[in-house]
Each structure stands twice: as C-alpha cells, then as structure tokens.
Amino acid sequence: MGEYKLLKKSGKVRRGEFKTVHGVIQTPVFMNVGTLAAIKGAVSTMDLKEIRCQVELSNTYHLHLRPGDEIVKKMGGLHKFMNWDRPILTDSGGFQVFSLSGIRKIKEEGVYFSSHIDGRKIFMGPEESMQIQSNLGSTIAMAFDECIPNPSPREYVERSVARTTRWLERCKNELDRLNSLPNTVNKEQMLFGINQGGTYEDIRIEHAKTISKMNLDGYAIGGLAVGETHDEMYRIIDAVVPYLPQDKPIYLMGVGLPSNILEAVSRGVDFFDCVLPARNGRHGHVFTKNGKINLFNKKYELDDSPIDEGCQCPACRNYSRAYIRHLFKAKEMLAMRLCVLHNLYFYNKLMEDIRDAIDNDYFDEFKEQKLQEWNGKA
C-alpha cells in the first residue's frame, strides 16, 4: 500500500510525498512517458536519471502486443528489463479503447481489439489488464476503464461510467488475488482508480463519490484533454477534486502543456503525464522560459545560443540552436534526442520549481510570473 503524506497545503495546492516500494515520489510530479518501455527519441533510463525524472510511464496494451508481457515477466519484470530502479506507472489500456475506436468493440466483459500491428484479435477486460500489469510488475497499475470522447451524449456517458465502476471492482479483486500469488513480480503493486463522466459535472461527482469508497491507493481524473476546451477541463477538475480522497494522490491523465500543469496544480492535482514534450521535441518544437520555439525556423540558422539560456540540460550545456537546427535539416537522429532531453528536463525542472514555490509559500506569484513569461508578456 502506498503512503501519501501531505507536507503542505495552501488553498487547494498540495505538496506531498508518496512512498512506494520503488522509492519516494515528491509531488506534484510529471511522469515521463515511455510507451514501449523506452522514451521515443533515443533517450535511455540513464538519461532519465540525468534529467531528474522521478517516475516513468509505460503502456499496458502496447507492451502486451510487443514484446509480450509474459516475456517481460520472464526477464524479471519491467524494472529489470529496462534497467530502471525508480517508480513506474503502467496505464491500463483504457485509453486505447478511445484512441483505437475504429478497431475495437466494447462489451460488458471487456473490449475486443484488432491489433494495430498485425490485425490479430485481442481481448482485454479488467482481469486481463491486471494480469498484464502484474506481469510487468509496475509500481502503480491503473484500473481498466473506458475513456469517453468529448462531447458524448449524456445517456451514453451514464452507461459507460456505470460499467467503468463495475470494471474497477473487478480490477481491485483481481489485483488483490495476483498480489497474493507466490510468483508475482511485485507483490506491492498498487491500484489507482479512474474518474470518468465526460464534461457532465454531476456524473463526475457521483462517480468520484462512488470510487472514493473503494479505498484505492490513488485516484485519477481520466477522459480530459480529449477534445474539450481548456476552460471545460479546469471546470471539471474544480468540480471533481473536492470529492476525491484528500489523503491519496490525485492524477490528471494525459495533461499537458506547462500552463495546464500550473492551472491543475492550483486546483489540487499531484500527478501528471503527457506525450507532448517528447513528441514536440522530435519535431524541433522546444520549450523555453519565454515560450515555445520551432528550431526549423530560418532565424536560428546562425544562432549560437543554447535552446534556453541558463538551462542545465545536456543539450543546452553543450550545443547551440544553430547546430541542432542543422541536425534536423540533415535528418540526424541526434537532433531528436537532444530536443527530447531538453523538453523532458524542462518539465522535470518545472515540477521542482513548483515544489520549491509551494514549500516557500510563493506558488501563486510563481504561477502568474510563469504564465506571463510563456505568453511573452513579462
């Protein structure tokens, strides 16, 4: 069982630490996304330590298809397989129910997929998702749910959320069973439940109340950043957070931009993840203290300054914008690697600065200053 300790609270803002079998996570935290047990862009687990990553996130559905969770288990679990001794969170495959909507069918027992790799039929329900995640041996397993597109008709959302609740019960029972088996990779594996309900506040609140009674290790807000506006997302976070247990971590799934993270921290969120910094980096879009820049822009052709002046990431300490732009133009893999390292460092450092600001009672000022700098108004 994970132990969440609230170190400081200022309004809704929370500063905590979460004890796990793979180390203590300082929150608020951004989890670096390595879908297939690797960060896209040739970034190793050794690099992750250098850029101050606390938690790595991998994907249940993708690792089940390749190399296969049974293989990962035979290799001693995901930590050993990818050589990472800090916490790992695995998402449940529930998001793929949304993102692969063209090749899946949802039933009460679970979801029937056609593999996006070779078309073969795959079935995943709550029990299967827990079995795969148990084989992977992650620190935190996510419950299997349906991620609903926004907007969706109210009647559909109500039916879906009720099924997600039934699936959560099944996840909890199955993970308890798996954790008690002698050959389980990580017998301390934790379960986070996921709040759904689209953009309907009342459905969200009812669902939050229901799952809060299950005494899980943590709680996520799912089904956001999938089509609604930022204002709608903030409205739902405001509505839901007060109804989730305040003595457990709260995780906003798949979010987002640095500005979204600041807004969500101010609303009481502890955990974040997003593919955005790595994906942007692979396309030459990098974050700086003055907002995002595109290194493909011709104006950087003779720019001998680092991506972000004063940044201590491996890219900024050693290379210029002009050189990295040249690497992209020459289609050298090193370009992607340096920009992904920079963007992930930017996010990890942002979280450190957020924690410092909360510790030292100036988070509100910090948030306003950052938002002005990123919007070019400072």
Automatic annotation (TrEMBL):
<comment type="pathway">
    <text>tRNA modification; tRNA-queuosine biosynthesis.</text>
</comment>
<dbReference type="InterPro" id="IPR050076">
    <property type="entry name" value="ArchSynthase1/Queuine_TRR"/>
</dbReference>
<feature type="active site" description="Proton acceptor">
    <location>
        <position position="91"/>
    </location>
</feature>
<feature type="active site" description="Nucleophile">
    <location>
        <position position="273"/>
    </location>
</feature>
<comment type="subunit">
    <text>Homodimer. Within each dimer, one monomer is responsible for RNA recognition and catalysis, while the other monomer binds to the replacement base PreQ1.</text>
</comment>
<keyword id="KW-0328">Glycosyltransferase</keyword>
<comment type="function">
    <text>Catalyzes the base-exchange of a guanine (G) residue with the queuine precursor 7-aminomethyl-7-deazaguanine (PreQ1) at position 34 (anticodon wobble position) in tRNAs with GU(N) anticodons (tRNA-Asp, -Asn, -His and -Tyr). Catalysis occurs through a double-displacement mechanism. The nucleophile active site attacks the C1' of nucleotide 34 to detach the guanine base from the RNA, forming a covalent enzyme-RNA intermediate. The proton acceptor active site deprotonates the incoming PreQ1, allowing a nucleophilic attack on the C1' of the ribose to form the product.</text>
</comment>
<feature type="binding site">
    <location>
        <position position="313"/>
    </location>
    <ligand>
        <name>Zn(2+)</name>
    </ligand>
</feature>
<dbReference type="GO" id="GO:0008616">
    <property type="term" value="P:tRNA queuosine(34) biosynthetic process"/>
</dbReference>
<comment type="similarity">
    <text>Belongs to the queuine tRNA-ribosyltransferase family.</text>
</comment>
<dbReference type="GO" id="GO:0008479">
    <property type="term" value="F:tRNA-guanosine(34) queuine transglycosylase activity"/>
</dbReference>
<dbReference type="InterPro" id="IPR036511">
    <property type="entry name" value="TGT-like_sf"/>
</dbReference>
<dbReference type="GO" id="GO:0046872">
    <property type="term" value="F:metal ion binding"/>
</dbReference>
<dbReference type="InterPro" id="IPR004803">
    <property type="entry name" value="TGT"/>
</dbReference>
<feature type="binding site">
    <location>
        <position position="223"/>
    </location>
    <ligand>
        <name>substrate</name>
    </ligand>
</feature>
<dbReference type="GO" id="GO:0005829">
    <property type="term" value="C:cytosol"/>
</dbReference>
<feature type="binding site">
    <location>
        <position position="145"/>
    </location>
    <ligand>
        <name>substrate</name>
    </ligand>
</feature>
<keyword id="KW-0862">Zinc</keyword>
<feature type="binding site">
    <location>
        <position position="342"/>
    </location>
    <ligand>
        <name>Zn(2+)</name>
    </ligand>
</feature>
<feature type="binding site">
    <location>
        <position position="196"/>
    </location>
    <ligand>
        <name>substrate</name>
    </ligand>
</feature>
<keyword id="KW-0819">tRNA processing</keyword>
<feature type="binding site">
    <location>
        <begin position="91"/>
        <end position="95"/>
    </location>
    <ligand>
        <name>substrate</name>
    </ligand>
</feature>
<feature type="region of interest" description="RNA binding; important for wobble base 34 recognition">
    <location>
        <begin position="278"/>
        <end position="282"/>
    </location>
</feature>
<keyword id="KW-0808">Transferase</keyword>
<keyword id="KW-0479">Metal-binding</keyword>
<feature type="domain" description="tRNA-guanine(15) transglycosylase-like">
    <location>
        <begin position="13"/>
        <end position="374"/>
    </location>
</feature>
<dbReference type="InterPro" id="IPR002616">
    <property type="entry name" value="tRNA_ribo_trans-like"/>
</dbReference>
<feature type="binding site">
    <location>
        <position position="311"/>
    </location>
    <ligand>
        <name>Zn(2+)</name>
    </ligand>
</feature>
<protein>
    <recommendedName>
        <fullName>Queuine tRNA-ribosyltransferase</fullName>
        <ecNumber>2.4.2.29</ecNumber>
    </recommendedName>
</protein>
<feature type="binding site">
    <location>
        <position position="316"/>
    </location>
    <ligand>
        <name>Zn(2+)</name>
    </ligand>
</feature>
<dbReference type="Pfam" id="PF01702">
    <property type="entry name" value="TGT"/>
</dbReference>
<keyword id="KW-0671">Queuosine biosynthesis</keyword>
<feature type="region of interest" description="RNA binding">
    <location>
        <begin position="254"/>
        <end position="260"/>
    </location>
</feature>
